[in-house]
Specification:
By secondary structure, the chain is α/β, with parallel strands linked by helices. The protein has one domain: Divalent-metal-dependent TIM barrel enzymes (TIM Barrel, Alpha-Beta Barrel), CATH 3.20.20.150. The strands form two sheets. The chain has an eight-stranded parallel barrel, surrounded by six helices. The protein starts with a strand and ends with a helix.
């Protein structure tokens, strides 16, 4: 199933624009685009919302017929329990996280212990925890951690764009992580020469116009057969002013949805 995530609304929800979208408004925009899934991910206001505000957002998602997934960082059992409670409130079946979080960098032995503790409740609730691929942790170590914990409710959120900064080739990460993938982040990426031809900028691109071999990823993971959702994200640099940036972000989302719907 195709979904949109908070990173598809990164600038639209940013304080750098005059009237940033709230969570419910992002839900409504998602539904207007004919999309039935939204991943609330790394959305800082979520943990500051009151119980009444959270209940209202969950109720609106249900009214819109919108499925919800959640995303955070870290594997501390207490933190993962907080997100399990939020998942239950939103009827979410998946929580994405990362092994490391700001100020929290466990050893892999510690991470395995934390995950075993937290996953008891995830297993009982039928909620999947998907750990994302990214540059701070080699994908081989991530796969080894998932296999070591050995829970049917633990898998990988595959985002090959992130791992390039760790000098891993996206195709290698895809092949290595495909058997354990439970969620996919879809965004394109490219290198561009910096002004003066000294160095490169690694950044986002409209889906289908960058270096991401999306057909190869689909072939390796087979998301439709396995019921794996694909969440649209962007790495869109600031475009100089709010209006241009927001318009470009909206255009990139339209491009991504057209590409995904045209390449099933």
């Amino acid at each position: 199933m195709i979904g949109l995530g908070s990173y598809a609304f990164f600038w639209q929800q940013s304080d750098r624009v005059p009237e940033p979208l709230g969570l419910i408004e992002a839900f409504e925009r998602t539904r207007e685009l004919g999309v039935g899934l939204f991943q609330v991910i790394d959305y800082d206001p979520l943990l500051r919302m009151s119980q009444a505000e959270l209940a209202a957002a969950a109720s609106e998602a249900r009214r819109l017929g919108l499925r919800i997934e959640l995303g955070t960082k870290g594997v501390q059992p207490s933190h993962l329990t907080t997100f399990l409670r939020l998942a239950e409130l939103f009827d979410a079946e998946l929580v994405r996280s990362m092994v490391f979080a700001p100020g929290f960098r466990p050893t892999l032995d510690e991470a395995a212990g934390y995950l075993r503790t937290a996953l008891r409740d995830y297993e009982a609730a039928g909620v999947t925890l998907a750990l994302e691929t990214y540059e701070q942790l080699p994908s081989a170590d991530l796969v080894a951690l998932v296999e070591r914990v050995g829970s049917e409710r633990l898998g990988i959120c595959l985002d090959p764009a992130n791992t390039v900064a760790g000098l891993e080739l996206p195709r290698d990460v895809i092949e290595r992580c495909a058997p354990h993938t439970r969620n996919i982040h879809v965004k394109d990426f490219a290198f561009a020469r910096q002004e003066g031809w000294v160095g490169f900028t690694y950044s986002g691109a409209p889906l289908g116009e960058g270096l991401h071999d999306y057909p190869r990823m689909r072939a390796a993971v087979d998301p439709d057969a396995r019921g794996i959702n694909e969440i649209v994200e962007h790495w869109l640099p600031w475009q100089g002013d709010p209006d241009t940036t927001v318009a470009t972000e909206i255009a990139w989302t339209d491009t991504a949805l057209h590409y995904l719907r045209s390449n099933p």
